[in-house]
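Sanity check. The docking grid for PRP depends on where the pocket ends up, so I'm generating a full predicted complex first rather than guessing from homology. Inputs follow.
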Amino acid sequence: MPNPKKTRHRTAKVRGESVKILISGRQIQRRIQALAKQIRKDFPGEPLHLVSVLKGGVFFLTDLARSISGEVSFDFIAVSSYGQNTRSSGQVRLTRDLDSSIEGKTVIVVEDILDTGMTLQYLLRLFQQRKPKHLRVAVLLDKPERRITAVHADYVGFTIPNEFVVGYGLDYSERYRNLPYVGVLSLVPAAKKESMGA
Ligand code: PRP
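Predicted complex below; grid placement will be based on this.
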């Protein structure tokens, strides 16, 4: 478990950015244990196939997969967006498909965050066509204020406010994914940066 003092230290200002802890690593791990138990309880004795969306969902997938008892397999998919306003225009496209068929399998889509819902809407349509036995969704973070689609997650780690969050897979310009906690990112104003000698 991360030492809170050390994690605070790791939020030191970098490039005029600061990260304030929103959900600690310990809270995340405890919640994942509970989600894993719930998932196994819902599908007792059944092989579960976890599908994670690169890249952000990777840490959640690895921790969740190790916490679910019984038979578990997993696979990865990657999607991208066309142009700048992809999410709002609904233009999600597949950039890496799954390695294996999901037909007849009990599939849990594992996502780090459910934001507008465009990614999940695209994935659920795609996966439904492939005839899984069951199709469920687990998200670590749910930001309902941002939703522009009708999708919902069956398993939610934490419902969070509409803040820019990083850590535990979530990035800002590819940075911060490796933080063991989820934090709110703030950009430090230039003037303040100067006075801090940043
Ligand atoms: C993030 C996240 C989800 C998606 C959710 O991925 O991992 O896949 O956004 O947003 P939505 O609900 O608005 O569709 P991102 O595109 O940032 O890629 P990444 O996982 O590689 O960081």
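Relevant for the grid: Residues 1-7 have pLDDT under 50 and may be disordered.
Also worth noting: The CA atoms of residues 131 and 152 lie 19 Å apart.
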